[in-house]
Amino acid sequence: MIPERAEAERLLREAEQHNPGPWGNHSRVAAHCAEKIAGLCDGTDPEKAYVLGLLHDIGRRFGIRHLGHVADGYTYMMSLGYEEAARICLTHSFQNQSLNDYIGNIDTSDEELELIRTKLKEVVMDDYDRLIQLCDSLAGSEGVLKLEERMEDVKKRYGSYPQEKWEFNIRLKEYFEKKTGKDIYEVVEKETYRP
Question: Are 175 and 130 in contact (CB under 8 A)?
């Protein structure tokens, strides 16, 4: 279950009041990209993709945390009854479903870490998980970035970017280009879209 579009937008605005920052517009860009790509993929609902993209980082509502935002987002969305959004809060950072992929500080309690580890093992990834992973890797706070630019930016901020994760993102882009039959940057209006 996910919220309606207007409710998801309200949740994001409310979250930004608790923890202002560029993450809000990053989420809007991810949502835009997800909606555009999903609109060209059979069996993928653009409205659902938009909402999931908008809420993937909603855990940032609770403050500046690294891995903690994953646990916070999952727990928050579950508390509201939005299981599918909770799942995306969990899966968006883990292309290989492994904590070894995580870029950033492990700033969770032991209980939060176990929650993430346990729930990740239970997930069978689908195209929504993969789509939001891709869109998270395309979304800057001021617009759409080339995949390599976004990964380099993350590498600069955190000091590393695992090669396996880098290559997985390239394969995700290729996968969705095959599904849409178009260049992803054209689909997501890279040159013109601004949040």
Answer: yes
